[in-house]
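Incident log, support desk, overnight shift.

02:14 A customer reports that sequence design results differ from what the structure should imply. Their input is reproduced verbatim below. On-call engineer (initials T.W.) acknowledged and began investigating.
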């Protein structure tokens, strides 16, 4: 006999978002070992600036050697640490978060709870703010993993705030009120609004006007406002990033106990494997309870020690943030430009590690069935794992999230060659039904041969 949790299907991992990952893992692309494999464009990782961190580590060997002032601190770090975290690390995190926000807001370590990544931080907040059956409103499209992270173990429900492509997915008063009314009709007790800023999957930062609207809405309804700001350091274009805490400060709500922020180093520093996240809250009860819960997912002392040193280096963090933004912008521009040449448009983005790509013109019909069919073809035949809008709860078929920062320049070139070949084949075969697949298979083999030939004659730059 197993628990109902084990036997239920509420984990949220049976969507095309996760199924695409499974297909990729069966046949992963490799520039030399498997050039016909699936290119992973469904994973929001930032690998563009690893060389900067690696250079810093080479210049500071004592940090990896667990030494301080040439003295070993191995025993100190190996022993049990309480769940409040190392003071030096929390201080460094507070300063780094302030730096990303132009020091317009100050973070206090006594309001900070360390967690093993933002997944744990978001779930912990749900446990603290809501009971099973309560609901949070989230602007849609939203990150597919929230259906797992926020709902599965907590029993909390998600009600989408439907935003539209016609107004570039801006959050409006009508959209907020409609979502709230839908939740009430379902007899759900709305406990708050949660946003990602910048948005995952849109790659756009939330404007000051939207944040002001959200704070007015949540304060009027007397519900919580949660801002997941794990992509805050990736904003590379105007408008600049604005934290909900900055707007709250301007409204004299800076100490409001119903405003909470989630942060992580997974995106800004590209360190998801380090499992570093946090909850920031003005509510002492939330901080106290979340701190106790954090014992189920702590950050290792060794990780805290390493990052405390890295983040305390002001010269490094200044250089890193500036250079990383430049690289992200250049990579975004390259993706958008290449897609444009194939007749594909994107929502204008200014942050994040992905673009929201418009493939509506490639659908056979304006339905989610047609979107699923196109997605299956792109994954299984074109060999690109991208995330369909339906997995992000987009209510308009034909939009896809495409990640661009988790691969080398050469791999991106392969992906774009495949896109161009696929679109070209579709256009050429619009009126040739049965020949369509044959021509695309021929085109794909040609692209693979071209890439293998290029590898044999040109020394490829290694992955960053």
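02:41 Re-run completed on a clean worker. Output:
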């Amino acid at each position: 006999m197993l628990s109902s949790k084990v036997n239920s299907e509420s984990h949220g991992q049976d969507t095309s978002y996760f199924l695409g990952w499974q297909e990729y893992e069966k046949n992963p692309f490799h520039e030399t070992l498997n050039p016909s494999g699936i290119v992973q464009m469904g994973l929001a990782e930032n690998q563009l600036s690893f060389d900067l961190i690696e250079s810093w580590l080479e210049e500071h060997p004592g940090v990896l050697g667990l030494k301080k002032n040439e003295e070993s601190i191995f025993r100190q770090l190996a022993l049990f640490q309480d769940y409040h975290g190392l003071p030096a690390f929390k201080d460094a995190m507070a300063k780094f978060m302030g730096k990303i926000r132009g020091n317009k807001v100050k973070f206090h370590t006594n309001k900070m709870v360390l967690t093993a990544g933002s997944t744990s931080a978001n779930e912990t907040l749900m446990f603290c703010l809501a009971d099973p059956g309560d609901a949070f409103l989230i602007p849609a499209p939203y990150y597919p993993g929230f259906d797992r992270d926020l709902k599965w173990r907590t029993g909390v429900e998600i009600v989408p705030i439907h935003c539209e492509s016609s107004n570039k997915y801006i959050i409006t008063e009508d959209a907020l009120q409609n979502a709230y009314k839908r939740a009430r009709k379902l007899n759900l007790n709305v406990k708050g609004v949660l946003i990602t800023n910048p948005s995952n999957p849109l790659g756009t930062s939330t404007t000051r006007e939207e944040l002001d609207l959200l704070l007015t809405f949540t304060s009027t309804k007397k519900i919580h406002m949660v801002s997941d700001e794990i992509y805050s350091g990736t904003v590379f274009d105007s408008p600049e990033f604005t934290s909900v805490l900055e707007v709250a400060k301007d409204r004299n709500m800076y100490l409001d106990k119903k405003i909470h922020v989630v942060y992580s180093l997974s995106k800004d520093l590209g360190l998801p494997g380090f499992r570093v996240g946090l909850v920031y809250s003005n509510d002492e009860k939330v901080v106290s309870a979340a701190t106790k819960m954090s014992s189920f997912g702590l950050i290792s002392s060794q990780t805290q020690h390493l990052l405390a040193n890295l983040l305390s280096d002001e010269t490094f963090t200044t250089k890193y943030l500036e250079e990383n933004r430049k690289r992200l912008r250049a990579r975004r521009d390259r993706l958008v430009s290449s897609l444009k040449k194939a007749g594909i448009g994107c929502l204008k983005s200014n942050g994040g590690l992905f673009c929201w790509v418009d493939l509506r013109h490639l659908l056979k019909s304006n339905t989610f069935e047609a979107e699923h069919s196109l997605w299956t073809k792109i994954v299984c035949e074109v060999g690109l794992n991208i995330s369909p809008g339906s997995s992000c709860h987009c209510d308009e078929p034909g939009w896809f999230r495409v990640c661009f920062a988790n691969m080398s320049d050469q791999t991106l070139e392969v992906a774009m060659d495949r896109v161009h070949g696929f679109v070209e084949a579709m256009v050429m075969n619009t009126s040739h039904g049965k020949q369509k697949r044959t021509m695309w298979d021929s085109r794909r083999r040609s692209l693979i041969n071209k890439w293998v030939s290029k590898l044999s004659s040109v020394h490829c730059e290694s992955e960053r």
